[in-house]
UniProtKB/TrEMBL annotation:
Statement: the UniProt record of this protein carries the keyword Metal-binding: yes
Task performed by this protein: Binds and deliver cytosolic copper to the copper ATPase proteins. May be important in cellular antioxidant defense.
This protein's GO CC annotations: cytosol
GO biological process, any: copper ion transport
Identification of the protein by name: Copper transport protein ATOX1
PROSITE patterns: HMA_2
Gene Ontology MF terms: copper chaperone activity; metal ion binding
Length: 67
């Protein structure tokens, strides 16, 4: 299942931070679209887990649903 999140990323540093916290989760595939401020995550993990993980970046995160 692919989840779409909107993350208030403004630079490469932000997207790098997002990539780091997601890689720590393990067993997730993700794509980051910095210009659109979107992150797509493919994972069996619960959406809440993914949301909390993204929030660790200190950015505003909004869940857009599954794609």
């Amino acid at each position: 299942m692919k989840h779409e999140f909107e993350v208030a990323m403004t630079c490469e540093g932000c997207s790098g931070a997002v990539a780091r916290v997601l890689n720590k989760l393990g067993d997730v595939k993700f794509e980051i679209d910095l210009p659109k401020k979107l992150v797509w995550i493919e994972s069996d993990k619960d959406m809440e887990v993914l949301l909390e993980t993204l929030k660790k970046c200190g950015k505003e995160v909004k869940y857009n649903g599954t794609k």
